[in-house]
Amino acid sequence: xxxxxxxxxxxxxxxxxxxxxxxxxxxxxxxxxxxxxxxxxxxxxxxxxxxxxxxxxxxxxxxxxxxxxxxxxxxxxxxxxxxxxxxxxxxxxxxxxxxxxxxxxxxxxxxxxxxxxxxxxxxxxxxxxxxxxxxxxxxxxxxxxxxxxxxxxxxxxxxx
Length: 160
What we know:
This protein is of the alpha+beta class and 160 residues long. The chain has helices at residues 16-25, 63-70, 112-125, 134-139; strands spanning 2-3, 28-34, 40-46, 48-50, 53-58, 73-85, 94-108, 141-155. Strands 1, 2, 3, 4, 5, 6, 7 and 8 form an 8-stranded mixed β-sheet that branches. Strand 6 and strand 7 form a beta hairpin.
């Protein structure tokens, strides 16, 4: 896996530690897959960043899983702390944010122990407590994204 500040050049690039912190603190990400005809498909998912991977769960049927089975290359994006930075003129206003983009390959998690650990991590990252049932882990489709490139950038509010 290659961890970069950002794909392309930008003054807002942040390092790998910040990229991972953003992934650990957000709870909803946007998964981009591709339909068979080449059109993109983006859908929000609850997820967890755990053991160097993005994990999410999904229905055993549907466009998302059909796309992943056909083409495992994906893009996954999270953003945090999105706030307007006001200005006297609308054209001078901006946005404060943190974002991380993960380019990688998705795979269905077959191992029951990994599925249970992933579901537990997803629940924890969403702020839920309690234990995930091992039976539930057997019946749930869990997908892991194995990162190939991680890119991140941020713009923070200027101190007043």
